[in-house]
Amino acid sequence: MNLTAYTIERRYISKRSNTRPGLRLTTGVPAFFVAHDTGNPGAGVESHYRYFNTLQDRSASAHTFIDDKQILEIIPTGTSSDPAEKSWHVIYNVTTDNERFGYNANDAALGVELCYGGSIDFAEAYRRFVWYLAFCCHKWSREPRLFIPSHKQLDPARKIDCDHALKSGGRTLKDLIADVTAELGNSVSVSPTQAGASAQQASPPAASPSPTRPSAPPDAAATPTGSQPSSAAKPDFVPLPAELALALVEDYVRPAWAAARAANQEVEAEHFHRLAVNLRSAAGIDEARRSLPAAVQLHKSNAQELIFRWLSPAWYRAKAIGDIQGADLAHERANRLRLASGLLPSSTRMT
Length: 351
Prior knowledge:
The protein has 351 residues and is mainly α. Helix content is 40%, strand content 6%.
């Protein structure tokens, strides 16, 4: 994609507990991106900047506002050198974000607002909205279909955005995801199952010379074709092998936790502690390696974080030096995580 097609402006609102608390995202970097609209027809970016910079009587905010002239980040998102911070864009007492991503949206996601209506040129605002979401997907290697929920999807009893604004311009959420994917082009790898191949196929994320020689990195997220299962669907996952869970904790999570503690980054340290707990739970063991009553499905966002943060770089490093065994190991670990989180169906055969 063209990463310089538009300019991202950054003008942050003042820190206040009800709008910009100044807290880092629990996940460090954004885990997903919530598509909103402002619900305020005719009001552009500057109007919303002024509003949230002076808001006192309620808790609300979002990271980025987009109209037909500007893309403005009013709370740090991580697209620059400023670390991503929390904003208050999805109410805490809904559970869909936790069920789908493993975190509250306020703690782990960017809130991206589309301005519309009045004198705002919808087509121009929509182009910027699509581009910005694609830019975020590119930066953090997220697949649009999996990582761009609308506010309505997360809080259907109360909210109608961004579907309401999209409808005013003759678009749907499905159109938005398709347009973001098209804008993104080939900058995020897509697995055979995402492209419509059989979910039973256990081939690597891209064509490879042999079943044990993956030629695509493990960060290409593998999911069954079709929509995400509802929270009421029967869990479809394979428990993580205990030895793999322990190895991932020792090789990656524990050093990250120790580094965070040494830097007095308590929020990040707590995140890595919880990640280690979740990995062991996915293997059906506790911290003392005692068996739990049953293994617990790994959060999809946990699997994606481990893949994107550590296993994909490990795969690239191994390929660069011709370490076929190391590349195979990273690839297999990534697929085991996908099975444990339901990103791959339990019927998938490991080769």
